[in-house]
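Sample intake sheet
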Amino acid sequence: MKYRLQEQLFQDYYTIVKKKNRQLYCSQFLSKTQPYLNSTIQLLHSIQHPHVLPVKSLFDDNTNIVIVTDYFEGEPLFNFLVDNIKLLEIQLATLIYQILSLIKYLNENGAHHGNINAMNVLINRESQNLEIAIIGFLFSPIHNQHDSYLQSASIVPSNIQDKLKAPGLESDLYQLGGLLYMITFFTRISSDIKVFKTILIIKKKYDANKIYQQYMKEFKIDFQMIDEYEQKLIDLQVTDSQYRHIYSSSQIDLMKKLLGQCSLQDALGHRWFVNAKQKSKIKRKVGLPSLKTIIEIKELSSDYEFSRNQQQPRVSVIRASIDNFVQDQEDENIDEESDMERLVASLKRYDKFPARSHHMRSRTYLSFKSSQQTTVCQ
């Protein structure tokens, strides 16, 4: 065996060390019973994309196929949601755009991901920027719907499964819409899941994947709620504070399009990415915190402890940016909830009359100023 297991990051995902030179790698264990295993492995060998970890080698351990990739110090997006870590709007928009860029790359090469969900999007907590890696592919070259596919694609809730005709571009867009819905309307996990999580921690068997599977049993997409919150944002109403990732009506609009009949080109060119970029430029004047800073603030405020191997990653996944998309649209106006609109709306609701003392002070000042001007003329 050339490698030695070092640390389990989460289910079926480990850091390993090459014995010869002590170099760190990551490894993912794929069960031999997984659907489309051979075609998925062939796809991973051929992919060259900044958000997919390059395959270095693979070997068989009787029950699993072990894929060895470049090292990436990341953990599932679902962990961030459970830990109540809030992503800024520009960070959330960048995350979705990065996944769309991967979907575009795969589609151009006649492939698809097939299993986009909150456990298969890895984020590096230590990164100043939003470094991500995508794992968990389920690639089927034959575009026929199979029950095994729907059972394996865990982001697909039961109330939209009938819309997925086959794994492919359409299923990837649906799953991305489902992921954006989960992030946007994610509430703190229910008391039953909290108890379940506590028991796992006490038994030292905590696994985010088990928490995720428990959460997915109750996960449904409420299309009526999507419409209600979109209208609230359009009307500039205050949204429910329990949803920490609701930012704009264009965000909800993209979600609806991804869950509906949306083309890849329409998704990539959606106005939310431009709006989020423009608003981040305004906020940057007062300092836009990085993902690492947000996590540090959260940990300090709640005495949250997070222990991990402190060794820095040797290979970073290049951060895809939405800069290329917005560079030709820098002067485009933001079409939603601008500061001026909010100010005007608040002034319209302001019905308190000016204080009488203010009028008296103004009248006294004007009389004094008039007398001074008269004196100067004399």
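Comment: Strands lie at 3-10, 13-18, 24-31, 55-60, 64-69, 75-76, 121-123, 132-134. The longest strand covers residues 3-10.
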